[in-house]
Write a structure and sequence with these properties.
alpha+beta; 2 domains; 152 residues; four-stranded antiparallel β-sheet; 39% helix; four-stranded mixed β-sheet
Length: 152
Amino acid sequence: MAAPAFILFKYPHGGRPLISPARRGFTWASMAVALLATVLAFPVGAALWLVPLLARFTASRYLQLGPRYLLCGDTIVYYGNVRRMVLSRTRGTLALSGAEGLLLRLERDKFPTNARKPDKITKNKAAKFEKVSSRIIERVLQAAPGTPLEEA
């Protein structure tokens, strides 16, 4: 059985970044090369430690939407456990609540954009928020059909 396909959206959350196996392998290989270079030629080799550090700390943060759950940093939200959804288009938030309280709050202003003009930035962020929130709402309603969606 194949692994579930996740849809990735750049979303700078406060959790850990997504580190792919290729990036992890590159980080370990560059650490080994830096260690070897430090032993053989100390001043030059010590500067090579910047390569694995840059590889580790420049990893992007993503919101990952799967078929049955979503991942946002250290937060895992199973769609079937969502008991209430509150969508506020004016504030640009989507709050997913479960039996134990707030599971995830998605914010429109956190979505990155490459636009430079302020009106295009707000337009692009709103479009990305609508796309992601509609997919999340759709998947929650598929997993738990009786989940109420409140518009605030």
